[in-house]
Specification:
Layout lengths: L5 E4 L4 E9 L4 E8 L3
Antiparallel strand pairs: 1-2, 2-3
Keywords: Plasmid
Length: 37
C-alpha cells in the first residue's frame, strides 16, 4: 500500500484514506470520511 491511498468501501460511499502504514508493527492508521451525495 502507498501513503495517501484512497479505499472506497460499502454502498454508502465511505472513504478510507490511508494516513500511515507501519510495516514493522503492522499498524495502519486511517481517516474515515462520509461522502456527501
Amino acid at each position: 500500500m502507498k501513503d495517501g491511498m484512497n479505499i472506497a468501501i460499502g454502498e454508502e460511499g465511505v472513504k478510507l484514506t490511508l494516513l500511515k502504514a507501519d510495516r514493522e508493527n503492522n499498524r495502519i492508521q486511517v481517516k474515515v470520511e462520509e461522502e456527501t451525495h
